[in-house]
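A reminder before we start the practical. When you read a complex entry, don't treat the lines as separate problems. The point of joint prediction is that each chain is placed relative to the others, so the output describes one connected object in space. Small molecules and nucleic acid strands, if listed, are placed in the same frame. In the example below there are two entries. Take a minute to note the order of the lines before looking further.
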Amino acid sequence: MTMDARALIVCAAMSVAAGLVGCFAVMRRMTLAADAFSHVALPGIGLALVLRLNPLLGALAALLAGAVLIWAIEGKTKLSTEAITGVVFSVALAIGSLTATGEELIDALFGTPGSVTTAETLFGLVAGLAVACFIFKARDRLVVSLVSNEVAIASGIGVRSLDLAFLVAFAVTVALGMRYLGVLLMGSLIIIPATVAKRLATSIDAMFAIAIGAALASTLLGSWIAVLTHRPSGPVIVAVAGGLFFLSLLKS
Amino acid sequence: MLRGADEDQGSEAVPAIVRLNLMANEVPERQIPSQEAAVGGSVLDVNRLTVSFDHTVILADLSFTVARGASLAVIGPNGAGKTVLFRALIGAIAHEGTIRWAPGTRFGYVPQKLDIERDLPITGRDLLRAKLTIARARKEDALRALERVDLREEVLVKPIGSMSGGQFQRLLVAFALIGKPDVLLLDEPAAGVDVPGQEALNAALRRLQQEEAITTLLISHDLSVVYHYASTVLCLARQQAYLGAPQAVLTPERLSEVYGTPISFHFHDDHGR
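Here is the predicted structure of the whole assembly.
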């Protein structure tokens, strides 16, 4: 069997969420911050391993705490999300490497192919749906606030709470990819398909569609190639996504 | 939404500002000889507004009132705090003093030239649709707004980054108009727009002001536009602020003093406003 139904569900949920969240991460010019942000999961994973909890729980908790921390620092200072994430990420990486070592940590970083438990499937499904619902519900507010913060405020949009909600959606999306891609590579699945979509699309709906399509194609095709070639799935998926990006460069 | 505006119909010619405190230190408070705005007829009440960034005072102790239906022009040299004043008015930055909008006031804000990436996949239609949802307005509102700024619907399929400066600014005005605002705040809407684009934009703004009772607050460097279309001028300078009717504020002496260099500005008063 190449892929069981559960893995397929987790893959699909992860791809849809990553594609959608990625669109706004790319348009808000927080791509590098986005990539670095996924590393915030590390101390949580380490701590969960020490406490013998599911690493996914630890990762999710750390990511959510990271989102709130970044948001709070952003509100207090004039620093950019990029700079703050840079600081939070390196500190998290340092703490993470202190709290945990070993094979399980490597798994969390690069993903673990193989069978997926019912709980993991359920989390993937619920989290993926929640993120997709949030993006579709908040898309208009997100669009206006990325065009101009002031215009958004004057239109009655609660910009600060919207920022927090987006960071939380981002954190959940990274956690979503931990099982299959690992947190290190999940950043790539968020950024690359959305970048492809930004190159090809000329409207927001088209961007959503292309980003989701590219993310799904990368994960499904990547997983299949990984099984055929007996390679870990995460790196193959990211390689496929990278291939799509280079293809998108053909468009003048 | 209910608005308490209707009892104040005929006051559009009343100068917007009744009082302005100058910097607290030396200059005494100056009363503008004008009709006091009717009680309850003001849409905006600013009292002792002070804004500072990192201990640098940008706006100090500024007080003024804007009557419903008035058109207030804000002028002054670069760095005088014009944009900061607008950002404070819409609630985007922290400030001291009070800013009171009439209850239920809805405003539309048109920012200074925005830097939009050329390849951002957001079309004019995406942007207007977003505003329709946020303002809970209907599609006809958007069509009407487009008509009022004289923007053709075909332009909306273009990504906003690839529109001409004039098209994009008019799109932003249309965006601001959706949701029936009582007040429009325009921050140099014609900056960076070529001459035909500026003319189209100014014509659109003039129509809005004449045909609807929208209160407008306009930041502009174009003194002839200010002279002809504003009922009151607020002139911000580093040391002081002046306000009054255009004829009173836009004098060569005052302008030289404010801009720190002689300015020859000749008005043609034959137009009548």
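Discuss with your neighbour: The first helix of chain A runs from residue 5 to 27. What might explain this?
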